[in-house]
Amino acid sequence: MRYCINCCIHLLPNDLHRQCFRCRGPDHNNQKCPVCRGDNKIPLYTDSKQMKWLAVLEVRTDHCESWNGFFCLRKGKLCSLMFGLIIMTLVMVSYILTGAKHGLLLIPSPFHYGAFASNPSLMDNESLSDMKDYYQPSKMNISYVKDYPSIKLIIDTITSKIEFITRQRPDLEELRKQEPHMFSVIPNKFLPNSKNPCWYEEYRGNTTTDPYATNSYALYSKRFRIIFDYLRKVFWNHLYHYKDKHYRLRCLPHFYIIGQPKCGTTDLYDRLRLHPDVRFSAIKEPHWWTRKRFGIIRLRDGFHDRYPVEDYLDLFDLAAHQIQSVLQSDAVKERGKRNNIIIGEASASTMWDNNAWIFFYDNSTEGEPPFLIQDFIHAFQPNAKLIIMLRDPVERLYSDYLYFASANKSAEDFHEKVAESLQLFEGCVLDFSLRACVYNNTLNNAMPVRLQVGLYVVYLLDWLTVFNKDQILVLRLEDHASNMKYTMHMVFQFLDLGPLSEKQEALITKSPASNTRRPEDRSLGPMLPTTKAILRDFYRPFNTKLAQVLFDDAFLWKRT
Predict the structure, then answer these.
(1) Distance CA 440, CA 375 (A)
(2) Euclidean distance between CA atoms 320 and 474, whole angstroms
(3) Which residue has the higher pLDDT, 73 or 500?
(4) Angstrom distance (rounded) from CA 466 to CA 458
(5) Which among 374, 545, 379, 365 has a CA at the least distance from the CA of 440?
(6) Distance between CA 412 and CA 398 in Å, rounded?
(7) Is the peptide bond before 260 cis (omega within 30 degrees of 0)?
């Protein structure tokens, strides 16, 4: 059936509007008829039994004859096609904007980078055997390569702003004003007959008092409660009684493994624990100096109550009990021997994480922290020893990404995060000093990947402002993986540990590597080629300075 588009009434067969009842019949009105008004409109016909709104289209023409009607019909189909394309385009745009990246992408990302075929090596949660695994080269994505020059300009800008300026070391009185309670608890001198820094502290509680009732580590973490339950049971057995008073032995670590994350610190920690003269804190990574003493559990969760220094010292009570047993032995009392047991602490954030300073210290140094972690450690332990494990910062960053990223992990996603982080870092160094940007809490939380953690030399130079170079041992993960026995001997010598039997040494050096990379992370393969090139360019000036400071070109990481 056919209908007039102007009158919407039934037409006779082969009728092209001239015999329309309403327009040409008895009720015809010249003012209302489109043809009489010269609008030159003709109807579009459909043979369907029911009108469809998409079919009711007005098409202009010069004549209203049969051939022109056919021509108008073709224009109507064209309009329908165009309308359909517009709808499809809108749907696809909506599809892209909702984040469906695994389908058809019509608009490329503004930043695409790739990397050369890499050999991802051990991170903190990887096996040392991974250092010997080789990945197949990834396929080159041309769009990533084309964007390399624009990112190279960003890196060139950052490089031009690099200045390694020695920081001003705060004096002791300034530190006391900032942390008066800490200075009231930790004494100036330690027991002379102990290699490890320890002292006796009067305990004023009674037998019904829980010495760990308020310990924040026990309160906020269920997995630590078993440790503290055991400490409660044995606490009174290890008190020292003198003149009707009770004393407990308190200890600080003799050495710290201070960094860096994803550089094999866990493996080093696990091997050192096997040495008969080495003990560690009850928790591998207390993060007290960098986070807990400021009340930070997770920075994104805001601040909790600050963990007092007593809570930190409680973590060394197990080791202190063993040291006290040695101190109370006849060999020490009568023969003048000393305790050789030493305690270590292995928070991998100690070297670099000073993010909390902005919330607690006066910002009077143009964005640079007036006090750093090492200032306080040195104030209490000027003879402390520090161990640093490093790896190629390019591979460290990718391992860091694989470990901490929670979803949608891929080499392409890593590219995007590297690009965004480089832009943010560039924006900072244009306005502030390098040190201010490295320790900038807002910037570090905004960057999708932790670029700043790989700027090893910036942190090392700041530690060298307070500690002597011979108090710091810097190791490479690559050397540890290829010759573990040699690196462990370097550590034993640095800590002045006694000789080991062949059996003890074999247990330490031949035990399985700690932590393996998760299978789902292994399946992602290496970073893309241009990404690696970009990161090489970014870290190169920092690695060059590091090699100069340590007088070792191995820290250029040219062969990895």
Answers:
(1) 18
(2) 28
(3) 500
(4) 14
(5) 365
(6) 12
(7) yes
Token digits of residue 366: 């143009």
> What would the DSSP string read from start to end of 114-183?
-B--------TTS-GGGGG--PPPPPP-HHHHHTHHHHHHHHHHHHHT---PPPPPPPHHHHHHH-HHHH
pLDDT tens digits, 386-412: 999 999 999 999 999 998 877 788 999
Mean pLDDT lowest among 170-174, 280-284, 336-340:
336-340
**Would the pLDDT of 49 be above 80?**
no
How sure is the predictor about 516, in pLDDT bands with cuts at 50, 70 and 90? low
The residue type of 467 is F
Tokens 């984040």 correspond to 99
Q: Which residues contact 243 (CB under 8 A, 6 or more apart)?
A: none
The H or E element spanning position 85 is: helix 66-97
Q: Is the pLDDT of residue 60 over 50?
A: no
Which of 59-73, 101-115, 288-302, 393-407 bottoms out in mean pLDDT, i.e. has the lowest? 101-115
The CA radius of gyration of the chain, in Å to the nearest whole number, is: 36
Whole-angstrom distance, CA of residue 229 vs CA of residue 236: 13
Nearest to 385 by CA among 111, 196, 216: 196
| pLDDT winner (highest mean) among 54-68, 214-228, 516-530 | 214-228
Quote the CA–CA distance of 48 and 85 in Å, as a whole number: 24
CATH architecture of 172-551: 3-Layer(aba) Sandwich (3.40)
Q: Position of tokens 């029911």?
A: 50
- What is the residue whose two structure tokens read 């050369």? 116
- Residue 221 near residue 304 (C-beta atoms within 8 A): no
The Cα–Cα gap between 117 and 120 comes to 9
φ/ψ of 312, rounded to 5, equals -65, -45
A 10 A CB-CB count for 331 gives: 11
Q: 255-259 and 245-251 as β-strands: parallel, antiparallel, unpaired?
A: unpaired
* CA 542 to each of CA 19, 364, 422, 430, 502: distance values in angstroms, whole numbers, following the listed order: 89, 27, 15, 18, 40
Q: Where are the alpha helices (DSSP H) in 248-349?
A: 265-272, 309-314, 317-327, 330-335
* Token couple for 547: 């090699």
Look up residue 296 and give its two tokens.
């930070």
> With 0-12 CB in 10 A as exposed, 13-18 as middle and 19+ as buried, what is 262?
buried
The DSSP symbol for 514 reads: S
Q: Please check the confidence at residue 138 and state whether its pLDDT lies above 50.
A: no
One-letter amino acid at 342 equals I
Contact 432, 366 (CB under 8 A): yes
